[in-house]
Amino acid sequence: MLRTLRSPRLLKVEVLGGLVVALALIPEAIAFSVIAGVDPRVGLFASFTMAVSIAILGGRPAMISAATGAVALVIAPLMASHGLDYLIAAVLLAGVLQVLLAVVGVAKLMRFIPRQVMVGFVNALAILVFLAQVPELLGVPWLVYPLTLLALVIVFGLPRLTTVVPAPLVAIVVLTLITVLASLSVPTVGDKGELPSTLPGFFVPDVPLTFETLQVIFPFALAMAFVGLLESLMTAKLVDDITDTRSSKTREAWGQGAANVITALFGGMGGCAMIGQTMINVKASGARTRISTFLAGVFLLLLVVLLGDVVALIPMAALVAVMIFVCWATFDWHSIRPSTLRGMPLSETAVMLVTVVATVATHNLAIGVGAGVLCAVLLFARRVAHVVDVRRTLSDDGALASYAVTGQLFFASSNDLYAQFDYASDPARVVIDLSAAHVWDASTVAALDAVIEKYERHGTTVEVIGLNAESETRLQRMRDVLPGGGH
Question: Which end of the chain is more exposed for a tag (fewer CB within 10 A), N or C?
């Protein structure tokens, strides 16, 4: 960041990136306020406080946090049933829960999310952002369409000529000048709702400090905490990949919590990382530091408070074009190329598709990612279950049958283990060699005991050999607690 402050060229990138993000945040924050059922100022102030706070506290430089649709969907029922004070109390509690989850290491769970779930997450969000722009193109004056087309030409074509000025900013300025100078009657940012004219003030929710209040707000706070952390941590990982840098996911987790606490204390609706605005900042504008995130929040506040009348003139067509560009840049087109689909195992493609379909169908990131992870686990278990091999050899004198077991023995693979032995035809002595296997769970211990018990019913002596230390320990410990154990 210090290097950027010393370089006018790099600083210009950060400043312009923050400005473009601020302009794009205004209609988004207003739209999310409508979804949540609150005054537009609640969403706009939340975007300001989240961006400024996370720029200082967060663990992923250049990532944008603000009021989001995911959070708006979670808290909308609470706003409808109990009002703004309860909503702010829930945001405050959600922030505290996020800090606690960060302390216990929730960020470390990110390593259990497969790459194909990440790809599905990115593709689903690109689709959702695009679908959110469709209503802006329906039932509007015909002039909106050529204006949107012109803006698309600018945002896609200008980077091929120069990257001195961010193409989204040029599109916004050009379309605003055209609509104002030509007095064109098209939807503008001002049509989305009233912009605030004062600074946000300190806000303490007026709710009873009782157990009944906690019962009301806790489910919403917990859902908001999980959805916010999931979206933020996955967006942070995406930015890591784009910028080839690493970030502190634990710091990002508690930073999001602290930012939500600060936001609640200023009467904001809370939020989390925004993949659309983050892609504008990182991909379209080329920003890389906390400066752009901080300035996005500052510019947002200055624009709506001091220049609200000017911002209100920006045609929605310009912002729709910018968001469509973001969708295009965000979507992982490589993941759906015919060559990729032919070379990728069917199970990997299935995981990606399940994540996309579940996320788009429910508009809920947590459900989509959960479905993708569950699908990945089931398909992995199925795949690993089929790599267990049991080979039988008979001694020259026919007095000993040896079984060499190879593979990972757990619930999916050990269920078939019982049927891999020739109980009736084997001689009086059997050896089961597990040198090339590993015992993972109680299902395997129970399966081995069942094998031994059936051999004993046939009068056969069974010896299990080759267990590694971990498998031996697990086997003995579980045999002491499993019904019928002790073989």
Answer: N
CATH of the domain at 396: 3.30.750.24
Tell me: do 314 and 449 sit in the same domain. no
- For residue range 112-134, list pLDDT tens digits in order: 788 888 889 888 878 887 888 88
Cβ pair 166, 150 in contact under 8 A: no
Average of per-residue pLDDT across 93-100: 96
SS (H, E, C) 383-401: HHHCCCEEEEEECCCCCEE
Q: What is the domain count for the chain?
A: 2
CA distance 285 to 273: 17
The secondary structure of the chain in percent helix, strand, coil, rounded to multiples of 5, reads 70, 10, 25
Q: Is 212 exposed, middle or buried (0-12, 13-18, 19+ CB in 10 A)?
A: exposed
Q: Is residue 277 part of a domain?
A: yes
Q: Which of 279, 312, 338 is the last residue of a domain?
A: 338
pTM equals 0.72
